[in-house]
Specification:
This protein has five helices and two strands, in the order αααααββ. The protein has about 130 residues and is mostly helical. The protein has one domain: Phosphoglycerate mutase-like (Rossmann fold). This is Histidine phosphatase family protein.
């Protein structure tokens, strides 16, 4: 919520209007929560070369589970047509893949920035545009 509050303040929006939406939270990494990437790869070197290693931890959410909850949010009539969404890296790439209709392999080949803004417009020629910041 800290990042969402900062974004609201920069955009001159009321931080009190922020809605915590559980369907767009970061992916659950199970036992790997709060574990450094280097430590995960040291313990599981076979995952180091895989793009999808993030959701391979014990007790982690599966990709279909994350896709389902994000798709539910996207198609929920209660979700506003225009929204500013502040989320995290993994959830962001999965959401962008859903919006663009990417398959699972293409999903993991996307950039995985931790400091990016994107604008999505369903009817524009360039449907998803990264905003430099």
């Amino acid at each position: 919520m800290e990042t969402a509050t900062l974004v609201a303040e920069v955009l001159c929006r009321d931080p009190g209007a922020i809605i915590a939406e559980p369907r767009v939270i970061e992916c659950g990494l199970g036992e790997w929560e709060q574990t450094r990437v280097a430590d995960i790869h040291a313990a599981r070197p076979e995952l180091a070369g895989r793009n999808d290693w993030y959701l391979q931890g014990p007790g982690a959410e599966t990709l279909p589970q994350v896709q389902q909850r994000l798709a539910h949010w996207l198609t929920d009539p209660a979700t506003p047509e225009r929204v500013i969404l502040v989320s995290h890296g993994l959830t962001g790439i999965i959401l962008r893949a859903l919006l663009l209709g990417l398959d699972d392999k293409a999903l993991w080949r996307q950039d995985k920035p931790q400091d990016a803004l994107y604008h999505f417009h369903s009817e524009a020629q360039e449907r998803l545009k990264r905003i430099c910041c």
